[in-house]
């Protein structure tokens, strides 16, 4: 008998990947994924602990799931509720204490143990598993059960050894671990066989990758990307999220040498102030970051950058904030994420003095976001009139044949009234309109479907 599985996912693309793997595991137990929790037999919240009030958001959603569980019970049908991910890892006992109706709480390193945890919960036990087991979950997870689509995520690295003072990742995901290269390539080949043309290599600190190579040596990320580029059917390669300290010479050179490696890099800097970077334990300076940007642009002149910024870190002054603003003005980003600092329990930053008031945080965040959003609008507008190769990887929901995809520079593009046969294809699109978060255009009929779209090109080359 088929059982219904509902998974809600917060946070990073790693969590999206993890949710997919949980669904693969549970498919072997007869669970079928559904989009709503109504009448679900197993409801999982896959959580993220990075953002402010993450725990309270979990409890808010748990209250809604509780009503579904109780409705099932009234019909004599059991249902299980589970909390997974980083909030579960950090606050598992708190969740079990506050929400007596939760059956399972487990961290991101034990998904491969789901079958036995479900067996325990079905038998009436309340399960909490936030261990860091000696075996790798990647060795236990099932092979891909379903295609992810034209664009696929593949996790290659997990955990972090950097211990930034604002970050919970080392405590919730553990120490850095890199999957063996052969295991990664096999997964990518399976996705390519199922139609994937773009691969996003994922990791909490992805450019720290140091996995066992097929030749017995240790491979870095540049070597792995070169091997991925040799997989038949793979046209585009991306990776995230990176740390500036791990942008080595080989990886920088790869951006110029490997056409399949897309000209876009998300490289979080967090602050433009050396004093704040030191308090954050980022282990790099602003000058170091500027040098990496310059070297990447020398290797691939059309490369686009995005980044992460935190404003209002403890001790941040007006001068520190202005250093961040000046960094943004000098570099010019195609897109960015920016947030007010909020303390994460258990991190060194949470115990620091020099707390910045919420009013000042708001003012600084608004100023930074105004600048970043203007840069993003200007960047997208510079593409109007150009023809860009777009990989259509999503369908619109407006009922007008809308297809959505991405340029090499990670911009979203939509085309209305597009032939369905173009889904999953890389197509020349003439850009006609630009917005802050994307662009729109029409299929260029002079050369529609591209056989090779990965040759470095000028970003605004007109047709």
Radius of gyration from the alpha-carbon trace, in angstroms: 23 Å
Report the major sheet: 6 strands, parallel
Strand order of the main beta sheet, please? 2-1-3-4-5-6
Shape, per Cα inertia axes: globular
CATH class of the largest domain: Alpha Beta
The CA-CA distance between the termini, in Å, is 56 Å
Nearest-integer average pLDDT: 90
- Please provide the count of β strands: 21
Low-confidence stretches: 451-463
Q: Portion of residues in helices?
A: 25-40%
Tell me the layout of helices and strands.
Blueprint: E1 3-9, H1 13-27, E2 31-34, E3 42-47, H2 54-74, E4 80-85, H3 86-98, E5 104-106, H4 114-122, E6 127-129, E7 151-155, E8 157-158, H5 169-172, E9 177-178, H6 181-193, E10 198-202, E11 211-212, E12 218-219, H7 221-229, E13 236-240, H8 249-257, E14 264-266, H9 274-279, H10 286-299, E15 304-311, H11 318-331, E16 335-340, H12 358-381, E17 387-395, E18 403-406, E19 412-415, E20 426-435, E21 438-443
Parallel strand pairs: 1-2, 1-3, 3-4, 4-5, 5-6, 7-10, 10-13, 14-15, 15-16, 19-21
Antiparallel strand pairs: 8-9, 11-12, 17-18, 17-20, 18-19, 20-21
Helix pairs in contact: 7-8, 8-10, 11-12
